[in-house]
Amino acid sequence: MAGLMSASAPGRPSSSGMLARELAPSTFTLRRVVAERLVPAHLPALRRMDANARTMAALGGVRAEPETEAYLQRNLAHWDEHGFGIWLLRDPASDRVMGRAGLRQFEVEGVAEVELACALLPEFWGSGLGTEVTRACVTIGLEWLGLPSLVALAGVDHVAAHRVLLKSAFAAEREIRHAGRPHILFRTD
Q: Distance (Å, rounded) from C-alpha 49 to C-alpha 32?
């Protein structure tokens, strides 16, 4: 990650005309993953993930095609508005899509936060990849973007996600309801 953090990115003009904090990188590479800023051409890969019942079980269930298209449009707009967002994750050796991860504006009980989100295809579960990607996103959010903290949500029974978050600088803060289900809100410490 040191090479990533030393890369330069253009500033973004704020409403006052002054340069705002740096933008997140549009791509970054880790030992086992290449992350690419979400673009319209990623719709087929997103459809594959959103149609996978195991991937989507903890994310509210399988999405229909119009829901995936809406998800893509929201996340493209998020990148344009905030200068950071979701990355598509690929295996650098095979170019296979592994999942998606990133940072996005999110409201928790009426408070604006930046959420870390990560979803991998089942064939990549249990390999440590989720932890590797989550740690990279934390580094980008806290060190690159200079955010004061990040939050993440995980269903109360999603023990694997809890472990990933705890290994990635998050601590459990409290239980909340999200999308009609109980979740644990984690926050970077």
A: 19
Q: In this structure, what token pair is assigned to residue 93?
A: 């050796």
Give the span between the Cα atoms of 79 and 27, in whole angstroms: 13
Q: CB of 117 within 8 A of CB of 178?
A: no
pLDDT, tens digit, for every residue of 42-93?
999 999 888 876 776 666 666 788 888 999 999 999 999 999 999 999 999 9
d(CA 26, CA 130) in angstroms, rounded, equals 19
State the CB neighbour count (10 A cutoff) for residue 112.
8
**How would you label 140-151 residue by residue, b for 16+ Cβ within 10 Å and e otherwise?**
bbbebbebeebb
Separation between Cα atoms, residue 65 and residue 51, nearest integer Å: 9
Q: What angle do CA 141, 12, 188 make, to 5 degrees?
A: 10
The pLDDT assigned to 54 comes to 75
Which amino acid does the sequence have at 114? V
Q: Are 183 and 175 in contact (CB under 8 A)?
A: yes
Query: Among all chains, which residue has been given the structure tokens 């298209």?
Result: 69
pTM: 0.84
Give residue 146's identity as a one-letter amino acid code. Answer: G
Report the candidate in 32, 25, 29 with the shortest Cα–Cα distance to residue 9.
25
Q: CA-CA distance, 142 to 135, in Å (whole number)?
A: 10
